[in-house]
Amino acid sequence: MSRHILRKPGRIVFAPGRERRERLRRVLLRLSIDTGAETGYSGRRKNGGEVTDTANTGPIVKARAGRTLSATSLLTLRRREPESALVFASWAALEPEEGRLDEDALAGLRDRLLRIGGLGIEPVLCLYRGEDPDWFLRRGGWAKEDNLRCFLRYTGRLVRSVGHLCGEYITFYEPNEMVWREKKSDLRRNYLTLSHIACVHVRAYRLIRDTRVQRGLEDTAVGVALRMMTPARMRRELLMGRARTVLSAYQKLPLLAMAKGEFRLPLRNTLRIRPGTWCDFVALLCDEPDRERCRNEAASIGGVPVRDILEIEG
After folding, report:
1. More confidently predicted of 16 and 198
2. Would you say residue 270 lies in a domain?
3. Sequence-separated (6 or more) residues with CB below 8 Å from residue 108
4. What's the structural domain count of the chain?
């Protein structure tokens, strides 16, 4: 894929090698790139155009919630040699009406992907981080099995529209935290929602790969981002009333279902997912003192490479 430096009215500017980097340095000194979403960076390495074995093991760095990365931050990260950028897509903004993608929002997403690609950084597109369209909520949201096709339709159309601009994807961003932080929902509904999200992740994994293969794009990696805790931290959360479930239901069961297709009660395999490998990597969110232990647990449960998500000041 050719590297696009900057999208200008009527044309796209190209520049190879050192000339491109120097030009970008001058541009970024006076340009603050407003991504319109949180942006992060990971350690994906390329050698002669081929992705090396470290593609799914580097850390992902993201701006703190509600902030975007400035030009200065981008230059700082560039010196640290990040080679993948995490871009969050908003389902609510991209599909405000059922069955219709908003062209302005889609153009904005393409522009963000092109700008990041112009830095010599490979974009990683996150499809969902808890932003449900109003029409989806009115239909019952994630608790209704019939609604799962809505997310798959959105995924397919989005990948067909921008899939040529990125090769790595995160389907869901900390879905376990999203489900369990809802204080008014009941346990049965929470388990059903987690079951549906795990099932649709597997279907989305296959859909993304198949769509890119149809376009002749073989280099695809699809993962999921989960928040994890140690047993001691979960006990403290339970005692303080901030946690509403036990550790296995919070992180082990969702990870087993998403990564391996193993659904253990109380999760239900509503879409009859077959056991297999349904994640190319797991992106890990946790407190810094617990990182090493959580990494080991995620690797042992999921059986796939684990990539840290680290926050920086944007």
Report:
1. 198
2. yes
3. 36
4. 1
